[in-house]
Amino acid sequence: MPPVWTTPHRPAPVDAVVSLPGSKSITARALVLAAIADGPSRLVRPLRARDTDLMAAGLRALGVQIADAGDDQLVVPGPLRGPAEVDAGLAGTVLRFLPPVAALADGDVRLDGDARLRDRPNAGLIAGLRGAGVRIDDGGRGRAPFTVHGTGRVRGGAVTVDASESSQVVSGLLLAAARFDDGLDLSLAGKVPSMPHVDMTVTTLRAHGVDVTATERGWRVSPGPIAARDVVVEPDLSNAAPFLAAALVTGGQVTVRDWPELTTQPGAQLDRLLTQMGAAVTRTPDGLQVTGAGGIRPLVADLGEVGELTPVLAALCALADGPSRLTGIGHLRGHETDRLQALDEVLTAVGARVEQLPDGLVIEPGPLRAATVDSYADHRMVHAAAVLGLAADGIRVTGADAVTKTLPDFIDRWSALLGAPAGVVR
Ligand SMILES: O=C(O)C1=C[C@@H](OP(=O)(O)O)[C@@H](O)[C@H](O)C1
Ligand SMILES: C=C(OP(=O)(O)O)C(=O)O
Q: How confident is the model at residue 11 (pLDDT cuts 50, 70, 90)?
């Protein structure tokens, strides 16, 4: 990969059908549940990218067998044990889903990752696990690195957590809770962002035979076995965002194959959001088809449920025909980078006027100009720059290899999307 990626400029309408690899979030949940299930499981077409490879490596370090079988993965649970070191890279899913599993292991498990991981908030999870009887040494920081002193079992019971900084705190605790001696009666202190991701967790647990009920203040998980299940992983709908956005920017047409009829992925909301921005969105026998009309309408929306769509939507806002206001996304300051700050810098560099709100952004488009921008080690900032580059000639990105986090061949796929006449881009 060149150190600086010059994003392709494409004023002509795109016309393509795109197939995308599996969902990061579904793969992460499938791996974790398979690792603590009551028998072996097959994951069909899981995502193979940095985040999910780190999840698999972390589980292997705890004693789980995970083998590749063509495009699939076979997972065989074993006794969970330490001592172990887990590298979470920059993956929020590993940072928040593995510590509750580590607590079930017999022995110490130390978790660390990239320099930026050490800034990502995790006090809610650490306090929640302590409330469930787990001993954790985090030097009082509430962040990585920390050591989970696993004893082979977790008491569980009534626990109150603050998950206002990440829904993954809730998901991490719920995923392992059926294996706690007393299950878990989880109460929330405050609001939780990205609620569709919590719904995804609850739905996935039920599909594995776990008894989860919503309570007035949260969720209750009964103790019991987690049934091993083979899981067919849906395409990643959040990673569909830049490809569908290309239809809007160029006034072209993009179809994403195998768009699920029913899904818990928040990316499903692209249908509604891109329609609001002026796209015609239809379902065809192939998948979800987005057609751009030649202009982009501004977006005024609370994106709290779909925070991970923000970078691409914000890029579209910088190309719209009026000012946009995106709110409900204060927690994005704790993502791969401070995404509100990063988007402010990038959109300003290409000519927009940006105002940061405590929980969002106001974006006023301006005359576009060429710029070299950073990836901030954030895959979705590369997606955003790629979308801007369609409209502005001369957008260059340093550190574009950040895309390995969830879509390692993004740059090849993007080039193919733009080079392809009508046809399948793989
Ligand atoms: O549970 C998950 O798979 C995710 C939950 C969300 O995290 P936050 O609630 O921290 O935004 C989302 O942004 C992330 O990309 C994936
Ligand atoms: C926020 C994201 O990732 P993570 O799972 O690392 O939190 C993301 O993919 O947009």
A: confident
Residue 7 contacts residue 388 (beta carbons within 8 Å) = yes
| H-state helical runs in 45-115 | 50-61, 92-103
Which domain range does residue 37 map to? 24-223
Binding residue numbers for 3-phosphoshikimate: 24-25, 29, 166-168, 194, 308, 335
Looking at the fold, whether 261 and 336 belong to one and the same domain comes out as yes
Give the pTM: 0.97
Ligand closest in space to the Cα of 192: 1
Is there a single domain that holds both residue 46 and residue 16? no
Which residue in 50, 163, 178 sits closest to 104, CA to CA? 178
- Indicate which residue of 308, 345, 355, 364 is catalytic: 308
Is 345 assigned a catalytic role? no
The ligand 1 site (C-beta within 6 Å) comprises 25, 28, 92-93, 166-168, 171, 193-194, 197, 307-308, 331
pLDDT of residue 362: 98
Whose structure tokens read 């929640």?
128
Q: Are 246 and 209 part of one and the same domain? A: no
- pLDDT, mean of residues 210-216: 97
Whether the Cβ atoms of residue 75 and residue 148 lie closer than 8 Å to each other? no
CA distance 49 to 117: 17
- Residues placed in the known binding site for phosphoenolpyruvate: 24, 92, 120, 168, 339, 380, 405
Q: Which ligand is nearest to the CA of 197?
A: 1
Residue nearest to atom 16 of ligand 1 (CA): 25
Beta bridge partners of residue 146, listed in sequence order: 111
Q: What number is the average pLDDT over the span 381-385?
A: 98
Q: What are phi and psi of 226, to 5 degrees?
A: -105, 120
Comparing 10 with 349, which gets the higher pLDDT?
Answer: 349
* CA–CA gap between residue 331 and residue 164 (Å, rounded): 8
Task: Answer yes or no: do 164 and 303 share one domain.
Answer: no
| The predicted structure's pLDDT at residue 421 | 56
pLDDT in tens, 243-279: 999 999 999 999 999 999 999 999 999 999 999 999 9
Mean pLDDT value across residues 42-65: 98
The ligand 1 atom nearest the CA atom of 334: 10
Provide ipTM, 2 decimals.
0.99
Q: Take residue 291 and report the two structure tokens written for it.
A: 């057609």
